Amino acid sequence: MIAATLLTLAIVTQDQATLRAAPRDAAPQQAALWQGDALEIRGQRMDYLQVYDHRRERAGFVHISQVQTVSLKPADASELLSVVRFLRDRPGAEALGMAYTAAYLKAAPAEAIGAEPFDALGTMADRLARRASMKHAKAVSDVISAHMEVAASYGVTFKGYEREGAMQLCYNGEAFRRVLALPSDAEQRARAALSLTRHDCMRADMHPQDRLVHDQWRAEVLDKVSDTQFAQLPEISKNRLRLRRAGVHASLAFQQARRAELPTAAAQRSLAELAGVNKTELTDNDQQEYSDAAIRVGASRWAAETARPKLAKLTVLAEAGQAGETCVALFENKADGKPGKDAAAKRCTYGIVWTASASAHPNGQALALAVQPLDSWRELWVFRKTAGQWSIDVLPPSSSGPELGYIEFAGWARGTPNMLLVRETRIAGRIKRSFEVARMDTLTTEKQASQPGMLAAFGKGQDAAWKRQTVSLR
């Protein structure tokens, strides 16, 4: 910890600067210093500063060309803030920027400190965590690790989450929480809200009750950007907020349904936010976020539907099974339209059964039903009657995963025993969307295309309700 009485200190401006035992180029090396390291100045010998490194608890000499001397007097605080502004958006200079932010917070009077330095600190910490999590970061791992150690010396904390077999590092968001607690402008609040609500910075094994509470908190954080402030944002920031809100409310709808709470409002909000995105203003990076949000919304979109379909020949009932289970029973209707006494087929699941999605083949020999086991993963159950016996098959969005994905019924192909399907997934970072014609006897894909217009069966047999409700045609 740097002594509180210091009025000047030296900030290391270069990576692998040398702390030497004497003020000579040939003197033994005491330690390798990194940009952002703060040193107490104890004197000067020739072109070397005599310093003490409190982080390593080691004294020595450092060449004046490798450090910048800064004043911690209140009158000089504005100069430090100017440097913070310059470094805030410079990739690779995060540790140095944190050092100047810490110096500013030490120098500035308490009443003069607003949201800006915390916004800068959070921005740099978030970017450093992202850099450390990138696949090519191994090539510069020593530098990034050293910068993260410097950041930790200023109280910046990171958390690790396992994602797709790799470690995802995330900033804990303390500075951004301060931004939201202080008077701040629209851009600052938007950056804070987006950083604090990232989908990839949550524990995958979170308890359902904790996940519900966390999603509610994320939704509240995103709404801390008021309507007035939202209107002041540039279109690129509006899009990013809409995409995050869409994904968060889609997850919230699933968590609410999981606890038998009404999910309609959250699901409708997710659809509205996704529909509000200005696609002409999406950057290349935001295109990926747009697809991710669409898959999340697509997985939970049935939560927005309240009307149950009227089926002439079949009836689907969902009832509680063992603790946490929902059991789906299929009944064949009698001549008077009422279900028979005994279930023709039955299957239980720990997922959410969206009974509003049930769609029966006109001949009463097949039925499709959406079942969602995870907030970002929705499967399709296919009931089929063959040789007088009913069977139930589960079609997942992909054989890999689950990561992000949904598969949905799009219609019964007219004049053929086929079914129309849509799959949209993100596996290993790659987005794939396909429109398919599947054989009912084997449930294998007979034809597929990237657009429905490329398949004649979609032109003839696509379901009108599906076309009206799906997000796959965005």
Low-confidence segments, given as residue ranges, are: none
- The proportion of residues in beta strands is 25-35%
Range of helix content: 25-40%
Mean pLDDT: 93
Categorize the overall geometry: elongated
Can you summarize the main beta sheet? 8 strands, mixed
Number of helices: 13
Class based on secondary structure composition and strand pairing = alpha+beta
Strand tally: 20
Terminal CA distance? 54 Å
Kindly give the count of domains.
3
| Cα radius of gyration in angstroms | 29 Å
Describe the structure.
- This protein has 474 residues and is of the alpha+beta class.
- Helix content is 34%, strand content 29%.
- It has three domains: 64 residues, SH3 type barrels (Roll); 122 residues, no CATH class; 159 residues.
- It has 13 helices and 20 strands.
- Strands 13, 14, 15, 16, 17, 18, 19 and 20 form an eight-stranded mixed sheet that branches.
- A hairpin with a 5-residue loop joins strand 17 and strand 18.
- The mean pLDDT is 93.
Topology:
Layout: E1 8-12, E2 17-20, E3 29-33, E4 38-45, E5 48-53, E6 58-63, E7 67-71, H1 77-87, H2 94-107, H3 116-133, H4 141-153, E8 158-163, E9 166-171, H5 174-181, H6 186-196, H7 208-222, H8 227-232, H9 235-258, H10 264-275, H11 284-300, E10 314-320, E11 326-332, E12 345-349, E13 352-360, E14 366-374, E15 377-386, E16 389-395, E17 404-412, E18 418-427, E19 430-439, E20 445-449, H12 456-461, H13 464-469
Parallel strand pairs: 15-17
Antiparallel strand pairs: 1-4, 1-7, 2-3, 4-5, 5-6, 8-9, 10-11, 11-12, 13-14, 14-15, 15-16, 17-18, 18-19, 19-20
Helix pairs in contact: 1-2, 2-3, 2-4, 3-4, 3-5, 3-6, 5-6, 6-9, 7-9, 9-10, 9-11, 10-11
